[in-house]
Specification:
Number of helices: 12
Shape: globular
Order of helices and strands: HHHHHHHHHHHH
Oligomer: single chain
Length: 266
């Protein structure tokens, strides 16, 4: 009797020399559920925060502006205010809150020097949180990040040259969390990722902290007065922002030419 009779044959897979065998496909029902859980968590945190804000306003009879000014005073003057600001910055990826707004707030609350220092610490903590989410949630977050046109095709370069590629993406103002999620999903080495993030994010940090510091004392709004802006800080912020955009354009051209040169040499 032919031993193959009645046995269901499975096609053999062939591999091209020098290439890795095809990876197993992830369970889509599982990976799809993870980002939904993250979005639901963000919505829940926003709902709890807004409800608490509304209840506090109703119970105290204070306006939302009064509460925001009181919150700013706590963050600025309380001994634990800076720690609370750093904690808020660190968990920001869980709430999908704007990193730019928190950076500007750092300048408003703490001024140029302390603001830049706190934002650097908070932004790197935030990047590590998003990196950890990328490692835990994996393929779906990476797929969403790669949907951004500036991240298409960078997977190989991120693995081969983590520091240089992350630094380039930071200089090019690629969406902050998208880079963090992708780095985590690819399980890049944390040290070059963090160092490149700290260096590459510094120009944008300085620009937006100086802008916030230049807005003046926003607590004046609580007394019906307009804050007095600092023209020097605002002008410096604007000049640095324009310079950063020009440098980003030059860096983008350099990054675009490098793959072509590498192809020619190979």
């Amino acid at each position: 009797m032919n031993p193959t009779v009645g046995r269901r044959e499975t096609p053999e897979t062939t591999s091209v020399p020098g290439t890795s065998p095809p990876a197993a496909r992830p369970n889509r029902s599982v990976t799809r559920g993870k980002p939904r859980t993250l979005r639901r968590l963000a919505l829940l945190l926003w709902a709890v925060g807004l409800a608490s804000f509304a209840v506090t306003a109703a119970a105290t009879g204070r306006t939302p502006l009064d509460l925001l000014i009181a919150l700013g005073a706590f963050l600025d003057q309380h001994p634990l205010g800076a720690a609370a600001y750093l904690a808020a910055y660190a968990v920001r990826p869980l709430t999908a809150f704007s990193a730019t707004l928190l950076t500007v707030a750092g300048g408003v609350l703490y001024g140029p020097l302390a603001g830049v220092t706190l934002v650097i610490v908070g932004a790197n903590a935030s990047a590590l949180v998003a990196y950890g989410l990328g490692r835990g949630l994996g393929a779906e977050l990476a797929g969403a990040a790669l949907a951004h046109p500036r991240l298409a095709g960078v997977t190989g370069r991120l693995r081969a040259r983590t520091f240089e590629t992350v630094l380039t993406l930071r200089f090019l103002f690629v969406p902050y969390d998208a880079v963090n999620y992708l780095a985590g999903a690819l399980r890049l080495q944390p040290l070059p990722f963090v160092v490149a993030t700290a260096i590459g994010s510094l120009p944008g940090t300085i620009v937006f902290v100086l802008f916030g510091a230049g807005l003046g004392d926003l607590s004046a709004l609580g007394t019906g007065r307009l804050p007095t802006p600092d023209p020097t800080l605002l002008a410096t912020s604007g000049a640095l922002f324009a310079t950063s955009l020009l440098a980003a354009r030059l860096w983008r051209r350099r990054a675009a030419r490098r793959p072509a040169r590498e192809t020619e040499t190979t």
